[in-house]
Amino acid sequence: MSALKKYSPVLAICVFFSFSPLQETPWQSNHIKITGNGQLEYIPDERGNIIPDFSRVGYYYGDKPLPTVPVVKTISPTGTDNDQEHIQAAIDEVSARKPDRNGFRGALLLKKGTYRIPESIRIKTSGVVLRGEPGTTLIATANKQVSLIQVMGEGQITELPGSRVKITDDYVPAGTCSFLVENAGKFTKGDKVIVFRPGTAQWITDLQMDRIEERPGTKQWRPQEYDLRFERTITKIEGNRIFIDNPVVMPMETKYGGGELYKYRFDGRISQVGVEQLNCESVYEKDTSENHAWSAVTFGKVEHGWVQGVTARYFGFSCVNLQRTARNISVLNSNCFDHKSIITGSRRYSFNNDGQLNLFMNCHTTDGRHDFVTGAITCGPNVFVNCSAKRTHADIGPHHRWSSGTLYDNITTDGDINVHDRGNWGTGHGWAGVTQVIWNCSVRKAAVQNPWVSGKNYCIGLQGEKFEGRLKGRPDGVWEGQNKAGLTPSSLYMAQLKARQRK
What we know:
By secondary structure, the chain is mostly beta strands.
């Protein structure tokens, strides 16, 4: 049985996209076409840039189904604030078990009932799964802004000394999975590497991000704050040409510092962890309360993990918050309803992603602000697919300061999707992102612009109004098929995943 057939969330989305009550005339994009054998043809622009392959995101790059980890311990609620200690002791007990041959220590099952959590539950060890069942509810009773469930490893990315080499291509286009380096002899197939793209003063000047219109608190962009580090794995080496598992998601140009490659390790990062089938609620005093739990689930310093079937209500920030050190996480079939906070900045980011190689699928929200969102210098690829947002108070999309390589695929919202120059909003958000692909989405209105340099943004098959964005005179993005039904493939992510699995 193929991974696709075993991956039940993927099957669900296949059914969703295969049925439509409308009889439409199919049409294909001028940038990606389906060939006769079901493969995809990518049509490059004048510099060789293509829309990237976004299919290698999420848990084990989408190549493995989410596992069903055996239950090794079961507990029931105590009915008191001792529930937190009860759950934590059980997690610690599971964490002390020896991993099986697949790296799993086992699942802790929380039987149905209500558990009161005054602070946070923490998972700090690989191979541990926290699972509920129908009727399992965690109540966050904290009177401060905490995460109800924290999944967190230790350490940080560390460069291996002596491994750094220059990328020698004058221009590496977006979408490519290979490039030349000055000495490939330092690397072998399977090496974990960082593709490093430096921030430079010339790049910031050409982006016009050193002259954002000033207001109190505005910060002009500074080069050292815009170094980008993309985590990749080497798949092949031919001479001095390196092949990587996931594409470059923004052009790298010699005139802007080019790029470099080096090996790394991340001691302390955990993996094979999951949070499943839980209802999470925060106590609150009133709709604008700020002194209560902020996120239902937070992941940091984690790879190859998942959140599935989690519903969050009444939190101030998010259902799921993936920090910058979270990669290859699948967030599936989850909901974020009825936030409680004032409606202003840094609040109500229903599904927030600052990490890379992450997948959000079949997630739904109400009453949020930035419901499906990435943060500053978020390195892609990342994917949001088949998600919806209602009663929105702000926009969906890259939020600020140069997110690169995100696919928004079949997003439905009564609000906006924007990829534009946000100017002096916040403390100087500026250009929100590059290689942002809006595919077959339905919105109230959208602004999709190209930055002055370093790439393009795409809006293909959008149902909704187009508007010029926050600031006038910015270059238009690549628009195609606005309000034209029948885009084929209906889901770019699913088409890319299927095409890769056919090879």
